[in-house]
């Protein structure tokens, strides 16, 4: 009788363990089909950032089955970025994608727990105030950078116009990564004996005046990857094309509006890479704390034939023509 009782107890234990394992397997199934919510905060609407967001969303669809994406645009206002990011935190989203530097800074200020992936951010060390940045943030933040080699961008001006004496740079004073680009491009050009005049603007209200004033002092103009400048590209174009000042840009969207040439990345592909990183984080296939910032591998030289024709310039060999 005692032996029978022991056997029955053993069987009950086995069934109980099987039940637990079955339950865990069920939980795993739920994990695989979990409904994720991803919040996207985009600083402003313009061609480059729009393409990055689209690439990100498209990449999610290839790696996840059950998810919602909420995309919100801050209309160029950093304070609105903060409001959007805090809203995502309050809603308990599973991941935040921050498109542009002010959006990244807002997300980082809002949470130290929810995974944050940045994109269209030039230099993460500058954006986040990290000295001697190693390439990995080491917290709940990673992402992709839109940095194309600044020395090559600066040299492009001299390749087109070897006799250039003075170059103007226009940028938004509120964007930390724009200031970084200005410093690096200035350093390179001054090393080549070129005088640099950098002029900043604060918003769309003064960009036309600043651009016009700068054009009267320089032989050529350079515009870094600056979100406010990109959103006001048509305003800049109205000035530089009338004055026939050759303008070089850090990305294709601005160059398409008013530039001679650019060394640019593909923002759609950059956003798609960010989306692939998001899939890995959400599926538990990667620890965001260990994910290094990803850079676009092969920037492309592109020229605006319409502007080149206007200025009487031939598109050099090795440049793609912007369609």
Please outline what is shown here:
The protein has 323 residues and is α/β, with parallel strands linked by helices. The chain is 49% helix and 20% strand.
What do these coordinates show?
This protein has 323 residues and is of the alpha/beta class. It is elongated. It has helices at 2-32, 47-63, 78-91, 101-110, 124-128, 150-160, 176-191, 207-215, 227-231, 233-243, 252-258, 267-282, 305-310, and strands at residues 36-42, 67-73, 95-99, 116-121, 141-145, 166-172, 195-201, 220-223, 247-249, 261-264, 294-295, 300-303, 320-321. The chain has 2 domains: 35-146 and 266-292, Response regulator (Rossmann fold, 3-Layer(aba) Sandwich), CATH 3.40.50.2300; 150-264 and 300-321, Rossmann fold (3-Layer(aba) Sandwich). The protein is 49% helix and 20% strand. It is built from 13 helices and 13 strands. Strands 7-6-8-9-10-12-13 form a 7-stranded mixed β-sheet, sandwiched between helices. Helix 2 packs parallel to helix 12 (267-282). Mean pLDDT is 90; it is low at 1-31.
């Amino acid at each position: 009788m005692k032996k029978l009782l022991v056997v029955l107890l053993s069987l009950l234990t086995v069934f109980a363990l099987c039940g637990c394992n079955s339950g865990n397997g069920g939980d795993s199934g739920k994990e695989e089909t979990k409904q994720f919510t991803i919040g996207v905060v985009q600083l402003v609407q313009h061609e480059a950032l729009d393409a990055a967001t689209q690439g990100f969303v498209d990449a999610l669809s290839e790696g996840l089955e059950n998810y919602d994406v909420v995309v919100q645009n801050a209309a160029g206002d950093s304070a609105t970025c903060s409001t959007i990011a805090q809203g995502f935190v309050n809603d308990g989203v599973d991941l935040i994608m921050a498109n542009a530097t002010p959006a990244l800074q807002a997300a980082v200020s809002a949470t130290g727990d929810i995974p944050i992936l940045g994109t269209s951010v030039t230099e993460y060390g500058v954006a986040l105030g990290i000295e001697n940045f190693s390439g990995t943030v080491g917290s709940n933040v990673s992402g992709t950078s839109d940095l194309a080699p600044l020395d090559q961008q600066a040299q492009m001006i001299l390749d087109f116009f070897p006799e250039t004496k003075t170059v103007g740079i226009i940028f938004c004073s509120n964007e930390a990564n724009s200031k970084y680009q200005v410093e690096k491009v200035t350093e390179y050009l001054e090393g080549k004996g070129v005088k640099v005049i950098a002029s900043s603007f604060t918003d769309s209200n003064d960009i036309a005046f600043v651009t016009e004033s700068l054009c009267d002092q320089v032989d050529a103009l350079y515009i870094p990857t600056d979100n406010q400048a990109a959103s006001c590209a048509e305003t800049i174009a109205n000035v530089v094309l009338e004055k026939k000042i050759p303008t070089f840009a850090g990305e294709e969207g601005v160059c398409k509006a008013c530039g001679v040439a650019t060394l640019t990345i593909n923002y759609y592909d950059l956003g798609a890479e960010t989306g692939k990183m998001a899939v890995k984080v959400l599926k538990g296939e990667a620890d965001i704390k260990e994910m290094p910032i990803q850079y676009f591998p092969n920037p492309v030289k592109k020229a605006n034939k319409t502007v080149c024709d206007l200025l009487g310039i031939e598109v050099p060999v090795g440049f793609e023509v912007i369609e």
